[in-house]
TrEMBL record:
It is an enzyme of class 2 (transferase). This is diguanylate cyclase. GO terms for molecular function: diguanylate cyclase activity. Residues 146-180 form a coiled coil. It comes from the Bacteria. SMART domains: GGDEF (SM00267). InterPro entries: Diguanylate_Cyclase, GGDEF_dom, Nucleotide_cyclase, Rev_trsase/Diguanyl_cyclase. It catalyses: 2 GTP = 3',3'-c-di-GMP + 2 diphosphate. Its EC number is 2.7.7.65. GO terms for biological process: cell adhesion involved in single-species biofilm formation; negative regulation of bacterial-type flagellum-dependent cell motility. Residues 211-346 form the GGDEF domain. GO terms for cellular component: plasma membrane. PANTHER family: DIGUANYLATE CYCLASE DGCM-RELATED, REGULATORY COMPONENTS OF SENSORY TRANSDUCTION SYSTEM.
């Protein structure tokens, strides 16, 4: 939660903000679930923040505010607090392990120092030892001290081994937390945040290696009408189906993401425009070839189609400009009748 919202909720304006949240949710037809309430607290408490802007976009586009939409927004904009808590928990465990290892190492150092003192004392005693009994006493003392050091070294090794395994487990856990925070909950594709990071990294790599980079934007045709006709749960089923087809085509180094609502994006590093066009056409044809059925009633939903547009990165072009050109190509596909793929290069030639 942002500092401004956190401050508001602990001041005299908290109750008025909460009442306004309920009123605004009711006016927009949004159910007051705990997750929706948290999202709208952010929206109204910080309307110019990233989440506030995204909710305004959804409302302006008259997109349905479904549970899937709430999950997507929460996964993208609200995981930071939960992620921070996960990191804090991992930090506490790591601190405990490091403290334990430090204690074991300190104990081993003291043992080694004592053992060194025992050796020095034995060496001095050997110079003055006269009979066998004295020598036997010295040897027995050295043997006992050596066994003690060996035991403590074994204990230290076991502790280091256990701590190494625990740190590896923590690393794996935090990596899973990171992946969850970057994954769209409904489709299991990368979410908007992950897409933005991938695009920035791919743009930089393409410029460094002088390799082509292509960005595609994909949109489900007439999705709002489909949702209004069959309901949001069936709409979510369609989103998952389209995402599964896109995901199968997104083998590394390609990246596929749910960009927002019924819109998806794909990044194609190092591929030619012809290869990208072929891949997008294959996705379009596979999606359109299947007649879908409603799971709950087995009603025939008919075929779903997509429109797509793609653009190749130009020299010194940033990610946002590349996205604008891909968006323009997508809208050209929409204007031309939908269920088609358009290249931004074709629009440039036509212009």
């Amino acid at each position: 939660m942002t500092a401004s919202v956190e401050t508001t909720l602990r001041g005299p304006e908290a109750y008025s903000l909460s009442r306004r949240v309920i009123d605004e949710m009711e006016a927009s037809g949004v159910w007051p679930t705990p997750l929706n309430f948290e999202l709208w607290l952010h929206y109204l408490g910080d309307p110019e923040g990233p989440l506030g802007r995204e909710i305004r976009r959804i409302l302006a586009a008259d997109e349905p505010f479904t549970e899937a939409t709430a999950d997507m927004l929460a996964a993208e904009y609200l995981p930071r607090g939960r992620l921070t808590e996960e990191i804090r928990d991992a930090g506490r465990v790591l601190d405990r392990e490091l403290s334990s290892v430090a204690d074991a190492i300190s104990k081993a150092h003291r043992s080694q120092a004592a053992y060194g003192h025992t050796l020095d004392k034995a060496a001095s005693s050997l110079d003055t030892a006269g009979d066998g009994e004295a020598l036997q006493t010295i040897v027995t003392g050295l043997s006992s001290a050596t066994r003690k050091v060996q035991r403590e070294n074994e204990t230290l090794e076991k502790k280091l081994d256990a701590s190494t395994r625990e740190v590896a487990r923590l690393r794996e856990h935090l990596e899973q937390v990171r992946r969850d925070a970057m994954t769209d909950a409904l489709t299991n594709l990368a979410n908007r945040k992950a897409f933005d990071e991938h695009l920035a990294a791919c743009c930089e790599a393409a410029e460094t290696k002088s390799e082509p980079l292509t960005l595609a934007v994909i949109d489900i045709d007439h999705f709002k009408r489909f949702n209004d006709t069959w309901g949001h749960q069936t709409g979510d089923q369609v989103l998952r189906y389209v995402a599964s087809v896109i995901g199968r085509s997104a083998r590394a180094p390609r990246v596929a993401a749910r960009y927002g609502g019924e819109e998806f994006a794909m990044i194609f590093p190092g591929e030619t425009p012809a290869q990208v066009a072929t891949a997008l056409e294959a996705i379009r044809k596979e999606i359109a070839s299947r007649s879908l059925r409603r799971r709950s009633t087995n009603d025939d939903l008919g075929a779903v189609t997509i429109s797509a547009g793609f653009a190749v990165q130009k020299p010194d072009e940033c990610g946002s400009t590349l996205l604008e050109r891909a968006d323009a190509a997508l809208y050209a596909s929409k204007r031309a009748g939908r269920n088609r793929v358009t290249s931004a290069a074709d629009l440039d030639q036509a212009a």
